[in-house]
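Quiz preparation item.
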């Protein structure tokens, strides 16, 4: 894992820096471009995506090896003779795995250092959100792999189970993109969607709570099935009880609406003046959008307006109406494309999917005037027309050499 993750991060970082530099005017002109450039989307999101791939395809095998290796070698029988409680034992293995993952994340931190050396801008809160998201994602992977390693009789079976669950979450995201509805809400709690929000600087309390519960559930199931001499029926009952408790806690977490936008350009929020105006609206807002799940206008409406509105108006209710998933043959129907708003007994219709159009309709229903946006609140961006110097040497040469040297040193000690 250590050997592979360095070049993997290097490919992502070098490609991101080159694209960022070209769009900032490297090799051409920077006139009229770059004002909206954010390192969060341009650099950190693609660079740390390599960590997401490593967490999905490399970290599970390491976690399974740590948890299932003792059972295969017979060391587990000796370990269980010690007075250390089984839950503390699983916690100790988890700490070791988290420490290993932190070590494997050093190439991503090296990318941060290189970017700083190029003169690139770093906004600590949004970078911290990205790091926290990938750490939480690693925790989910470790918990899932630990549970699978304790349940399965062989590490290869545990690996298949872990990868099947990972692919299953991707299927949920695919179904949500096609059908929407309850699938769309469920997809918001998958690791892919969670990491995507953290990579955009958004921290949602419900997602953090749900992920934390799932981590505790996975480690708890691992501890339950790691015990030897306990009847299988008892383990099954205890696992079902833990799963039911976790589902109840996750359901309760969905009602938590607190969130924090840590992005420097406030890409997940409306301007502060609009948020202050919207917070004065006390009546519940109901929106009915006649748009299919795969209609690009629905994607724009959700990303540019509704996702931001939910953070300001927790009582908002959104209902999508469509007879098909694509909406291709619904274009000629009478009401397709209409977006109806209901607030305080008043209704209004609009077809605009932009944030400005949505806010204008809401202010009209509330009898309010749109506030003026302050000029100093506009994000000017941080363009940087610099090529990725020395990055290839760091990720393709120095890092693999250090890993190989450490491996040789360890083998000689043994």
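Solution:
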């Amino acid at each position: 894992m250590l050997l592979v993750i360095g070049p993997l991060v290097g490919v992502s970082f070098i490609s991101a820096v080159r694209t960022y530099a070209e769009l900032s005017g490297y090799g051409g002109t920077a006139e009229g471009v770059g004002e909206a450039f954010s390192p969060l989307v341009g650099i950190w999101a693609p660079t740390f995506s390599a960590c997401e791939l490593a967490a999905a395809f490399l970290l599970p095998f390491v976690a399974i090896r740590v948890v299932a290796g003792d059972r295969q070698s017979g060391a587990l029988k000796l370990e269980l003779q010690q007075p250390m409680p089984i839950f503390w034992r699983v916690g100790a293995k988890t700490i070791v795995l988290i420490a290993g993952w932190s070590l494997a994340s050093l190439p991503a931190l090296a990318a941060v250092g290189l970017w700083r050396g190029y003169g690139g801008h770093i906004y600590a809160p949004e970078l911290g959100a990205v790091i926290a998201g990938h750490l939480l994602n690693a925790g989910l992977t470790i918990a899932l792999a630990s549970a699978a390693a304790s349940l399965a009789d062989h590490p290869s079976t545990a690996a298949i189970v872990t990868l099947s669950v990972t692919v299953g979450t991707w299927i949920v995201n695919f179904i949500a993109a096609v059908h929407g509805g309850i699938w769309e809400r469920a997809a918001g709690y998958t690791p892919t969607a969670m990491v995507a929000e953290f990579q955009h600087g958004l921290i949602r309390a419900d997602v953090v709570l749900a992920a934390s519960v799932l981590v505790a559930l996975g480690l708890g199931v691992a501890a339950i099935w790691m015990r030897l001499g306990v009847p299988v029926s008892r383990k099954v009952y205890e696992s079902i009880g833990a799963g039911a408790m976790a589902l109840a806690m996750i359901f309760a977490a969905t009602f938590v609406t607190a969130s924090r936008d840590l992005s420097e350009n406030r890409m997940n929020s409306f301007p502060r003046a609009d948020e202050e105006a919207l917070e004065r609206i006390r009546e519940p807002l109901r929106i009915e959008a006649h748009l299919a799940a795969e209609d690009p206008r629905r994607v724009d409406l959700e990303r540019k307006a509704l996702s931001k509105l939910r953070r300001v108006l927790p009582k908002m209710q959104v209902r999508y109406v469509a007879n098909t998933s694509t909406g291709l043959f619904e274009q000629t129907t009478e009401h397709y494309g209409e977006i109806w708003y209901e607030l305080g007994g008043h209704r209004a219709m609009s077809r605009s999917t932009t944030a400005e159009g949505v806010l204008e309709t809401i202010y009209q229903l509330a009898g309010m005037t749109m506030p003026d946006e302050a000029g100093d609140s506009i994000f000017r961006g941080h363009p940087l027309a610099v090529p990725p110097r020395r990055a290839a040497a760091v990720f393709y040469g120095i890092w693999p050499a250090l890993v190989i040297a450490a491996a040789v040193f360890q083998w000689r000690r043994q």
